[in-house]
Amino acid sequence: MKYLLCFLFIGWVITTKAQELYVFSEPASTMPVKSIILKQSYNQMAGMGIQNFNTQVEFSLAKKWMVHLGTNFKAADFYSQYRFFSVDAMYKHTRLAWYFRGIVSPEIANQKAFLYDGQQSLVGSGIIATHLQHKWASSVTIGLTHRKDGYAGVGQEAIQYSLSNGWLLYPKKYENYDQTNFNFYLEILGQKLLHNNGYYIDMAPAVQFIFNSQSKLNFGYRFALDNPMHRLNNKGLYLSYDYLFF
Amino acid sequence: MKKLFLIVCIGFILTNTAIAQIKSAEIVASGLTCSMCSKAIFKSLEKLSFVDSVKVNIETSTYILTLSNSKEVKIEDIKEAVYGAGFAIAKLGLSLQLADKIASNGAVFTNANYQFKWKLAKDKNVTPLQKVWVLNKDITPVNNTYTISL
């Protein structure tokens, strides 16, 4: 029965189209030049009783270079991504990008795990590799993060990584830009402390509606597959809406 | 006599201006599957000053541009619109108004301020408004010349 379900799932996956507009991570692709995205997100982390509202503006500085500026009205978040490799062919592409991320926060997170929702100041940089092939799109991100304030016996560096997949479920056939798109994403988000055995691995399924090929509504749920660091925020709901101005 | 000369000159210039035209373009974009990506290209093409209208087939990533008669058409701007949106051009077709009736392999001609060179297995008849395909990789001219085929 398990094998049958697996088989059906794979069959369903390969008959759909790929999407790389991930909810919990960025693909190596960058935004269209001269475009701006306004994004509002809401994140509720179970265990910490924290509700986080983040407002973000995303824009392209050049053809292959984009910047995100965000704030939750306590911390400021800066993200920059440069696409340095692209091979495009019909219905497929392979792309590599470099990213840098910095968060300035007045708070000091009192736990082992590195937190990315404004609870601590940190900087990080890494590489994103994305491959899209008509019916399958996958992206891997790996980077190193340094946080300003350490935690006893943990150190200040961690490796952050993710593996993301996405599929277009509706429409089956594109006819115009007004059709609402429905996408499903499944992402693995992980962290490994460099100077300690601590790590976590989260799974993050998400659904996405795209309206008029211009705005996105995202619902995601993130939960720990393995949580030996005993993170308090080991699961959380995520909701966001963004609008692209061409 | 002077007037007659002037009229002949103006007539000659007008005739040549009318011939020196790219009437429409067909773009097949590559590297995308989603409608949001397709719309980014569509909007970039629509913003070009010499583009009168854009028709799109999202499924095949094909864009048909109707080009202005009165404005200078820039092939490099068409390319930049697609690449600036984050994608590439797999095929670029141009509808050229041609003076000659036969296309010969290796023959070079100027049209709409661009230099074109035929690449054909053998000589072929062409129509006054002829669809041609640009063969240059990434639509980048070599020695300021676009190589074209039928």
A few lines on this structure:
Chain A is mostly beta strands and 246 residues long. Chain A has one helix spanning 2-14, and strands spanning 17-18, 36-46, 50-62, 65-71, 76-89, 92-104, 122-133, 136-147, 157-170, 181-193, 199-211, 215-226, 235-245. Chain B starts with a helix and ends with a strand.
Topology at a glance:
The complex is a heterodimer of chains A (246) and B (150).
Chain A: H1 2-14, E1 17-18, E2 36-46, E3 50-62, E4 65-71, E5 76-89, E6 92-104, E7 122-133, E8 136-147, E9 157-170, E10 181-193, E11 199-211, E12 215-226, E13 235-245
Antiparallel strand pairs in A: 1-9, 2-3, 2-13, 3-4, 4-5, 5-6, 6-7, 7-8, 8-9, 9-10, 10-11, 11-12, 12-13
Chain B: H1 2-19, E1 22-30, H2 35-46, E2 51-57, E3 62-67, H3 75-84, E4 88-97, E5 102-103, E6 108-111, E7 114-118, E8 124-125, E9 129-134, E10 145-149
Parallel strand pairs in B: 7-10
Antiparallel strand pairs in B: 1-3, 1-4, 2-3, 4-9, 5-8, 6-7, 9-10
Tell how many strands the DSSP assignment of chain B holds: 10
The proportion of residues forming helix of chain A, as a percent range, comes to: under 10%
**If you compute it from the alpha carbons, what radius of gyration of chain B comes out, rounded to the nearest whole angstrom?**
17 Å
Which class of secondary structure composition applies to the elements of chain A? mainly beta
- CATH fold title of chain B: Alpha-Beta Plaits
Largest sheet of chain A: 12 strands, antiparallel, barrel
**Would you identify the CATH architecture of chain B?**
2-Layer Sandwich
Greatest interface and its participating residue counts:
A-B, 36 and 24 residues
Give the CATH level 1 class of chain B: Alpha Beta
Count the beta strands of chain A: 13
Q: How does the major sheet of chain B shape up? A: 8 strands, mixed
Oligomer: heterodimer
Succession of helices and strands of chain B = HEHEEHEEEEEEE
Low-confidence segments of chain B, given as residue ranges, are 8-20
Distance between the termini of chain B: 44 Å
